[in-house]
Amino acid sequence: MNESIVPLSEEVAEKEAERLIVAAYQPTSFRDDTPVPRYGTAPPVPQPGIPPMSHRTTEITRSVMYCSLATVPPGLIAVAVMVASEHANPTVIGMICAAPAAIAVPILAIARLLRRAGQSVPAEIHQHYTGTVYQDQRHTHSSTRGVWAKTNNQQ
Question: Where are the alpha helices (DSSP H) in 54-127?
Fold first, then answer.
């Protein structure tokens, strides 16, 4: 044993014990208020939930989920009514369940066709010039005919 340790008096020992007990029950926390950088060196990590997708794919996925959920209650009600009335025919139940998809597929196809048609139209280009504009348009036919054609528009 180390004989250089001096024992504490009863009063000092009680105060030290009380200080340690109070310190033990104090919550320990640290808040770092330094601003977080917008980007760092760590690679991006996929977050829990819907996997990373493009914006367009995310919109399509969500619309499919919401539209499919919207078709469940009418189908269940129709099936329940047929079962309750004892006229449940498997063919009719199959047609009721497939009807929303049979209606939605042509509508989605037409919407996609219209969207593609809108994208294929070239955008209007408005060019505004200041100062003198010189346009030289030459129409030559002799050198630009044939399988291999060479166009030389230099003066």
Answer: 55-84, 90-120
Other CB atoms within 10 A of residue 72 CB: 11
Q: How high does pLDDT run on average in the chain?
A: 78
Backbone φ and ψ for 75, nearest 5 degrees, come out as: -65, -40
Residue 96, number of CB atoms within 10 A of its CB: 16
Tokens (6 digits) for 9: 């008096």
Q: Give the N- to C-terminal CA distance of the chain in Å, as an integer.
A: 108
How many Cβ atoms from other residues are within 10 Å of residue 138's Cβ? 7
Query: Which residue in the block uniquely carries the two structure tokens 């929303």?
Result: 100
Is residue 149 within 8 Å of residue 143, measured between CB atoms?
A: yes
* pLDDT over 90 (residue 18): yes
d(CA 79, CA 85): 10
